[in-house]
Design a protein that fits this description.
binds 5'-O-[(S)-ethoxy(hydroxy)phosphoryl]adenosine, 638 residues, single chain, eight-stranded mixed beta sheet, 24% strand, seven-stranded mixed beta sheet, alpha/beta, 31 strands
């Protein structure tokens, strides 16, 4: 079993060791897993290529570590608790024994469809145990899974399938999120019109909704399962064989397929899960993220299962059937560790204390927060009303690219400070740098957050585009991984993440690239050009404000705004709909044609008293016109 730090003193010792002798530190942790063959070297790396190898030469299969290894002691212990969208439907409890069987069968299904080691498989499923089973089945046979969040549109799904040349798609007939029905198979059908590489589509019958099944291509999972046998010997993988691809947004260009490999990700996800949350045997762990995002990968599926934990998967939304749903789930399943996003907390805060009243939340020991900076008010509300003042909040900072949590308190161990991610985990060497790339030393400082030494969970590449991987993360500052986040280090050496310093916007914990939204808006038939910026939003954290130039005079602006919003929802997904749109005659550009987003951001924030230096603009009068237009924006637009 993975070692667990017990005291703050021990944390400091382990941290020292991890910096002074990283190979001894991580090698020692890796000893706690099942290997088919031990590694030759713990770490080989250089950040300029970049080329990073952990446990090179080792052989293993991550699913043996998630499943086979637990059979002796945990066959009848629950692995996954599934809480359905509809509170009246029965919850499912899947034991380690059942999960093992299901994954082996599913692995055989994939093999029967000619999926081989190294092939890419796209998973487009609701929050149901089958999503975890599909991921594990891929990993078992050595196929690379690419999970696409089920809120993405057909076009986004197709783009991701094509980028990774997936040969098989796994989806379901339909799903419910709150009262909303989403016809997943229909969306998948639309996507598959433009994905020539997909040979087969496996469909899980979740809601018995009517679907079109294309002969030869579309196959029911239950029929395939009935034809395979129940044992499968795990494929032997190299440490650095790819495990999964997960798409995420950057400042520019199309989404990036972040690539994670097998052994390093396994060691890091298991270690961080056990230590950050201080997971104890039999605790019920509930993470409300979706498996379509990295939090779901690492802290619903891999981290918990590697530790033999009980992981709760919730299909629905926090406000259905009422805003007490999260608290009902905690009461019903006696959740001990609850991990959610600040946006969810802020949205529930608006309903006051009525939905919490009378709920027995006494099982809770640890609360977690992830995805965006948590504001102090939300922190206090969560701490007092949900944690009854005695559950620490682990404010966990990390990214799709980091594989697991990098900066966070260890629950019950690290002294807390509201709204601070506090201290780096063992193995993590954060540095703050100024605009010129100089390291900022000392405390009471602020800068761009970089990490100067590799950890096992770091991404290895962007699928099919290693050069983009290098330029995005390793070229801004020499020999450092650049996170894209701004950060403060206070007098005590505690870290507080201040948010993105690039053009990535964090809306309700979803990472959205301004470029992607602009491209979608520009596809609208009357739009010539657009610029999207963020403004602060009470619940979502940040919201999208789009400035658009049209090719004609628009009389019914409201109608066009709605069309544009719907178009973005169609191209990317509903979560990327701009909140506000303003039609403008021109955008503030420098003489070299660059849009000055800084000015647009100020206008979007409503902070027009000090727009800074606008003398470098090609036409400073543009700014006055936009400010006047912003003041007249219809409130309904927001
Ligand atoms: C932001 C999500 C402040 C940050 C795991 C990061 C946070 C981006 C926190 C990654 C936190 C995540 N405090 N900001 N505790 N956690 N972020 O890839 O800007 O979806 O760069 O990974 O979310 O988002 P991603």
């Amino acid at each position: 079993m993975v070692p667990q730090i017990k005291t703050f003193e021990e944390y400091k010792e382990q941290y020292e060791l991890s910096v002074n002798d990283p190979e001894a530190f991580w090698g020692n942790i890796a000893e706690n897993f099942e290997w088919k063959k031990k590694w030759n070297s713990v770490l080989e790396w250089n950040f300029s290529a970049p080329d990073i190898k952990w446990f090179n030469g080792g052989k293993l299969n991550i699913t043996e570590n998630c499943l086979d290894r637990h059979q002796a002691a945990r066959k009848n212990q629950t692995a996954i608790i599934w809480e359905p969208n509809d509170a009246n439907d029965a919850a499912r409890h899947i034991t380690y024994g059942e999960l093992f069987l299901y994954v082996q069968q599913f692995a055989n299904v994939l093999l029967a469809q000619d999926v081989k080691k190294g092939d890419r498989v796209c998973i487009y499923l609701p929050m149901i145990p089958e999503a975890a089973v599909a991921m594990l089945a891929c990993a078992r046979i050595g196929a690379i899974h690419s999970v696409v969040f089920a809120g993405f549109s057909a076009q986004s799904l197709a783009d991701r399938i094509n980028d990774a040349s997936c040969k098989l798609l796994i989806t379901a007939d339909s799903m419910m999120r709150g009262e909303k029905k989403i016809d997943l198979k229909k969306i998948a059908d639309d996507a598959m019109l433009t994905t020539p590489g997909i040979n087969k589509c496996i469909v899980f019958n979740h809601k018995s909704s009517p679907v079109q099944m294309k002969p030869e291509r579309d196959l029911w999972l239950h029929e395939l399962l009935s034809k395979v046998n129940s044992t499968h010997t795990a494929e032997v993988m190299e440490s650095e064989d790819p495990l999964f691809i997960l798409y995420t947004s950057g400042s520019t260009g199309k989404p990036k397929g972040v690539l994670h490999t097998t052994a390093g990700y396994m060691v890091y996800s298991a270690y961080t899960f056990k230590n950050v949350f201080q997971y104890k045997d039999q605790d019920v762990f509930c993470c409300t993220a979706d498996v379509g995002w990295v939090t779901g990968h690492t802290y619903i599926v891999y981290g918990p299962l590697l530790n033999g934990a009980v992981t709760l998967m919730f299909e629905g939304i926090p406000t259905y059937p009422d805003p007490g749903r999260f608290w009902n789930i905690i009461e019903k399943h006696k959740v001990n560790i609850f991990y959610t996003a600040p946006t969810a907390i802020r949205s529930l805060q608006l309903y006051g204390l009525q939905p919490v009243k009378g709920k027995d939340l006494s099982s809770l020991k640890v609360l977690g927060s992830v995805g965006e900076p948590i504001n102090e008010e939300a922190w206090q509300w969560y701490h007092k009303n949900i944690g009854n003042g005695n559950c620490p909040i682990v404010d966990t900072w990390w990214q799709t690219e980091t594989g697991g949590i990098l900066i966070s308190p260890l629950a019950h161990i690290t002294p807390l400070k509201p709204a601070f991610a506090t201290l780096p985990l063992p193995g993590i060497q954060p540095v703050l740098v100024d605009q010129k790339g100089n390291e900022i030393t000392g405390n009471g400082v602020e800068g761009n957050l970089c990490i100067k030494f590799p950890w096992p969970g770091i991404a290895r590449s962007l699928y099919g585009n290693h050069e983009r991987f290098r330029t995005t993360y390793f070229s801004t500052y020499q020999n450092k991984y650049f996170t894209g986040d701004g950060c403060k280090r206070d007098e005590d050496g505690y870290y507080r993440i201040t948010g993105r310093v690039d053009d990535v916007i964090n809306v309700s914990g979803h990472r959205i690239g301004t470029g992607e939204v602009e491209d979608a808006i520009d596809e609208h038939n009357c739009v010539i050009e657009s610029a999207v910026v963020a403004y602060p939003h009470e619940v979502k954290g940040q919201a999208l404000y789009a400035f658009v130039i049209c090719d004609r005079d628009i009389h019914n602006k409201e109608a066009v705004y709605l069309q544009i919003k719907n178009h973005v929802a169609k191209v990317i997904g509903p979560f990327a709909r701009p909140d506000k749109i303003q039609i403008v005659k021109a955008l503030p550009k420098t003489r070299s044609g660059k849009i000055m987003r800084r000015i647009l951001r100020k206008i979007a924030e409503g902070d027009i008293t000090n727009l800074g230096d606008i003398s470098t603009l090609l036409d400073p009068a543009v700014v006055d016109a936009i400010v006047a237009g912003a003041a007249g924006l219809n409130e309904k637009n927001s």
